Amino acid sequence: MNLSKYETMDPVMLMSIVNMKIRDEFEDLDSLINYFEIDKEILINRLKQAGFDYLPEVKQFR
């Protein structure tokens, strides 16, 4: 799944996709961010507004 529309995507769907990609394809959030050339602050803030925080110890948004 492409994350090119992460700024307008439904936040629950976005969280699910990001978590799945980190789990299955990337080492961590930074690897995903670099690969898709995503603005990390925008992604984190978008998900934070929906109630999700990134937990680096488990490499997931929850």
TrEMBL record:
InterPro entries: DUF4250 (IPR025346). It comes from the Bacteria. Pfam families: DUF4250. This is DUF4250 domain-containing protein.
